[in-house]
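U., I forgot to send this yesterday:
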Amino acid sequence: MTAKEAKQYLAGNDGYGYFKYVKVCGEYRFAESHEINFDHEFLANNETVESAAHIQVNPSGVKIEGYSMKLKIGPDAADYERLPELFGLPLLWDFD
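Result:
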């Protein structure tokens, strides 16, 4: 799903979501983390991946965590700025 679709998902889920993501050519691709058929490798679609990880989103902010074991890549420095901006929420290092 695109960032727009991820935001629509959050809107229908009271602002809560847990996604895996990859960044390809500066664009983010998301899937719900529990979706087994949509892993980081699937999201990459055989394209060069710039970063990959998981994000938790709730009404208070965005938390970036982990990395892709299959792709052997994690988040990059830009993700810590861009992902919170995409969702219009602050970056959180931990949830209260």
